[in-house]
């Protein structure tokens, strides 16, 4: 591209790189006559291909072993840290065997009896999923449990306010609690409880009149 008359800036814009990058590559071509990668600096690799093969085979057959045991077993002139790094590069890691009680024939018999007792033909399925949930709301006080009511559909701030007005307040009055006229109502910071427009509305309006 330079031979065709393009400047460094033109070449950089054409290939989509920075002008400095183009300048360095052109300078290298002028000085060395090629653009081959330079040899990488750094210390020569300690582990030979043969040692690599032996390390891999060792950990494939001894998954619960470690670098120190591998060095001693294979009689390698390498540090445990070097072997440990090579393990990581190969995808191996030190594994700890799980400690479990040994199963006896009696254990197997009991397990079979349990499985047969709860076989599908011996269990009456009441729902396809095997699980049924029911959302409820209730209140408690010093002397026990108050009213509990089922929540139908989504539990929103409007639903919560309706439960307080239609369920909780009437049930509080029906208990004829031996308390002063002012009742302290406590709740958590659930978003439904702290929604804008609700916050404490029934307490001020109704509890003081109990």
TrEMBL record:
It comes from the Eukaryota. Its main location: nucleus. Pfam families: HTH_32. InterPro entries: Homeodomain-like_sf, RNaseH_sf. GO terms for molecular function: nucleic acid binding. It is found in: Nucleus. GO terms for cellular component: nucleus. This is Transposase. It comes from Petrolisthes manimaculis.
